[in-house]
């Protein structure tokens, strides 16, 4: 769930990614219909809104705000930023974004999780072999990243 700013009100929505779109659902149980569908290709991801919404981030297209979203924690924010950066086709390193209202330690946590989810999403989406190298879009993916069973290389291959 993410909080979504709509008509100057925050509403909790179940959010998921499908075919390079962010789908917003009223709740987790109703996945057949969605409230909104936001195409992500070409969008920019920008963290920060104000000091009351520390884990908020915006989606922009050509400088125009497409959506304002808010995670419930720095961990969720980091994961969403990484996945959204990958889905938008961005080459932006999460460390270069401006995290205005978050303290240094929390910012470091957000950046680490954003890089992990960015690398994981990018490798799964675009890399012909995720075992050949450890770089995605010009920066090294963190070692020690949690792997799924199908990400583990088989000896001799």
UniProtKB/TrEMBL annotation:
InterPro entries: AFAP (IPR030113), PH-like_dom_sf (IPR011993), PH_domain (IPR001849). It is found in: Cytoplasm. Residues 1-89 form the PH domain. Coiled coil: none annotated. Its main location: cytoplasm. Keywords: Coiled coil, Cytoplasm, Repeat. PANTHER family: ACTIN FILAMENT-ASSOCIATED PROTEIN 1 (PTHR14338:SF8), ACTIN FILAMENT-ASSOCIATED PROTEIN 1 FAMILY MEMBER (PTHR14338). This is Actin filament-associated protein 1. It comes from Ilyodon furcidens (goldbreast splitfin). The lineage of its organism: Eukaryota, Metazoa, Chordata, Craniata, Vertebrata. The gene is AFAP1_3.
């Amino acid at each position: 769930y993410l909080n979504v700013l709509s008509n100057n009100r925050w509403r909790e929505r179940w959010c998921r990614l499908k075919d390079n779109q962010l789908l917003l659902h009223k709740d987790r149980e109703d996945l057949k219909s969605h409230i909104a569908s936001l195409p992500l290709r070409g969008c920019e991801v920008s963290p920060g809104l104000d000091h009351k919404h520390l884990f908020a981030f915006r989606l922009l297209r050509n400088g125009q705000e497409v959506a304002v979203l808010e995670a419930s924690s720095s961990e969720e924010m980091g994961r969403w930023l990484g996945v959204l950066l990958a889905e938008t086709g961005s080459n932006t390193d999460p460390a270069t974004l401006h995290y205005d209202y978050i303290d240094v330690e929390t910012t470091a946590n957000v950046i680490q999780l954003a890089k992990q989810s960015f690398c994981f999403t990018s490798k799964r989406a675009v890399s012909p072999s995720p075992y050949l190298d450890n770089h995605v879009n010009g920066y090294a993916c963190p070692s020690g990243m949690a792997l799924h069973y199908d990400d583990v290389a088989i000896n001799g291959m």
